[in-house]
Write a structure and sequence with these properties.
The complex is a heterodimer of chains A (451) and B (83). By secondary structure, chain A is α/β, with parallel strands linked by helices. Chain A folds into 2 domains: 147 residues, Lyase, Ornithine Decarboxylase, Chain A, domain 1, CATH 2.40.37; 253 residues, Alanine racemase (TIM Barrel, Alpha-Beta Barrel), CATH 3.20.20.10. Chain A is 29% helix and 24% strand. Chain A has 13 helices and 23 strands. In chain A, strands 4, 15, 16, 18, 19, 20, 21, 22 and 23 form a 9-stranded mixed β-sheet that branches. In chain A, strands 5-6-7-8-9-11-12-14 form an 8-stranded parallel beta barrel, surrounded by 7 helices. Chain A has a two-stranded antiparallel ribbon with strand order 2-3. Chain A is globular. Chain B has a single domain, classed as Arc Repressor Mutant, subunit A. Chain B has 4 helices and 3 strands. In chain B, helix 3 crosses helix 4. The longest helix of chain B has 17 residues. Chain B is globular, with a radius of gyration of 12 Å. The relative contact order of chain B is 0.17. The chains are: A alpha/beta (451), B mainly alpha (83).
Chain lengths: 451, 83
């Protein structure tokens, strides 16, 4: 009978390097053999590796959590799904089923929402670049448009003339809410008086009806107080507009930017400690509203939460292709997924789980992607036991932004599946092949090769 | 005297290097390999010994041995002549 094998490991002992949280990285390991009850190996056998996996259960659960937090505290709330965070049809459809409208920031996203069956009046059209034709369509179809700059006011007045209608619009504000960096490139600045100028401009044109205010203070905001400041400033400004110009502000769109339980690089504390709960955000926002609104006035509160809803519903299964030792002594693994499909790896440190029990103590290691590019680093330092080739790693949360910002670069983009609430697995985006990439290429006749 | 022979190694896999004052721990497999290296066994002999004693293929054992020797060298526990 042969003895059980463990990869040979030697570790240098160091003193004075205790982990503040008391758990030695040498013995922690996180094993995940399944996602929502479906074995990881079964998923890979059927759909290949790497593979993005979304949990419908988790997605609906996260949305309901956010929805409950706000609707319990304020009577008039709308949730609008931020398409850029994840515009896969299946993901959007789940959230539309849950009652979200669509928040789009380009003509492409607008068209994608319409194609999915979202009526124009259930779309919020934001963004700094709205081509003229798309404004015509959006006005015709009754979409809510939040204006980014003076040029766009002029464009919309032209649309109003062309169609003979008075479009109902919102303006986007930017402001100081006490956080850094302060986003100032979108919309009109509040403190400088630019926002009021925009209202004056709209009023004097007489062709547009100002009915809403929009603001998006930033992304992955860890300070709930910033939203309180945002809401108070928006309410003050709304009443100023109503009192001075006679418009009725029907909605206050406070954007998104709520964090997920992801670990932003450079933040020392784990996300369970650093990221405030959605209830804290909701409490700040709703009590700021209720304390500053006039009695009986309940304008619609619109939230464009993206990351906070979808991030934790997404996983990426990737496979160890090779192990190597760097000259520094550090262990390195080459994975089949890199920054080409994990754009958020630049800013976030993912949770890394392995698909099997592996014996041996964990050692510090670096995770490289498959690209022949020095920047292709999925994790520059994590602790893993000695992994045999073929081990699957499950990275999470990766549901936000990756399947929209991924690149077809060097390799094909992989398949995406959705695990339904009853454990059914549906392919929601096929893996790419050569035809996807060459479909739009044209080779001039004179360059045709004859080997 | 060769570097490996100067190391104080106990049965539990604790290693002390009297020259540098550094200490290390190795697991059971690592200890097994170090003992064979001290006896002057060749890489091929070690691979064979590993696959006979443990439940591992020669191919996997060879790959792991290369990595392990690389680690020993990086820690300065092995001179070039050993391998």
């Amino acid at each position: 009978m042969k003895e059980a094998y463990e990869k040979p490991v030697i570790l240098k002992l160091k003193t004075g390097m205790m982990n503040k949280f008391g758990s030695s990285p040498a013995y922690i390991r996180k094993v995940r053999k399944e996602i929502d009850g479906v074995p990881v190996e079964e998923l890979v056998e059927k759909f290949g590796s790497p593979l993005f996996v979304f949990s419908e259960k988790k997605l609906r659960q996260k949305f309901r959590e956010v929805k409950n937090a706000f609707t319990l505290r304020y009577p008039n709330v709308e949730f609008s799904w931020s398409y850029k965070t994840n515009y896969l049809d299946a993901i959007c459809a789940v959230l539309h089923q849950e009652g979200e409208t669509a928040e789009v920031v380009s003509e492409f996203e607008y068209e994608k929402a319409r194609r999915l069956g979202v009526p124009g009046n259930q779309i919020i059209y934001n963004g700094p670049y709205k081509p003229y034709d798309s404004l015509v369509t959006a006005v015709k179809e009754g979409a809510r448009i939040n204006i980014d700059h003076f040029e766009e006011i002029a464009d919309l007045e032209r649309v109003a003339d062309e169609l003979g209608v008075k479009p109902r619009v919102g303006i986007r504000l930017n402001m100081d809410t006490g956080i850094h960096p302060q986003w100032s490139r979108f919309g009109f600045n509040l403190e400088s008086g630019q926002a009021l100028d925009a209202v004056k401009r709209i009023a004097s044109g007489g062709k547009l009806e100002l009915v809403g205010l929009h603001c998006h203070i930033g992304t992955f905001i860890l300070d709930p107080h910033a939203y309180e400041v945002e809401v108070k400033k928006m309410v003050d400004f709304a009443y100023k507009v109503e009192d001075q110009f006679g418009f009725k502000i029907e909605y206050l769109d406070i954007g998104g930017g709520f964090p997920s339980k992801n670990r932003l690089k450079g933040i020392y504390l784990p996300p369970e400690v650093a990221v405030p709960s959605v209830d804290e955000f909701a409490e700040r926002v709703c009590s700021a509203l209720l304390s500053s609104l006039r009695p009986g006035d309940y304008p619609k509160l619109i939230l464009e939460s993206g990351r906070a809803i979808v991030d934790e519903a997404g996983y990426l299964i990737t496979t160890v292709h090779a192990a190597k030792r760097l000259p520094s002594g550090l262990k390195a693994y080459v994975l089949d997924a890199g920054v080409n499909i994990l754009f958020t790896a630049f800013w976030y440190k993912f949770n890394v789980e392995i698909d099997r029990e592996v014996h041996g103590t964990s050692e510090p290691c670096v995770l490289y992607g498959p690209l022949c590019m020095n920047i292709d680093v999925v994790d520059d330092l994590t602790y893993l036991p000695p992994l045999p080739r073929g081990t699957r790693l499950i990275l999470s949360p990766v549901g936000a932004y990756n399947v929209t910002q991924w690149m077809q670069f060097i390799r094909y983009r992989p398949a995406v599946v959705l695990i339904g609430e009853n454990g059914e697995v549906d392919l929601i985006r096929e893996a790419e092949d050569l035809t996807d990439i060459v479909r739009r290429e044209k080779l001039p006749e004179r360059l045709k090769l004859e080997w | 005297m060769r570097k490996l022979e100067r190391l104080a190694i106990n049965d539990e896999g604790f290693i002390f290097d009297p020259e540098t004052g550094n200490s290390y721990t190795v697991n059971k497999t690592g200890l097994f390999i170090i003992k064979l290296l001290k006896e002057g066994k060749s890489e091929e002999e070690i691979v064979k010994a590993l696959s006979e004693k443990f439940d591992v293929s020669e191919e996997d054992a060879r790959r792991d041995l290369v990595d392990f020797i690389e680690q020993l060298r990086l820690y300065g526990l092995l001179e070039g002549e050993n391998v």
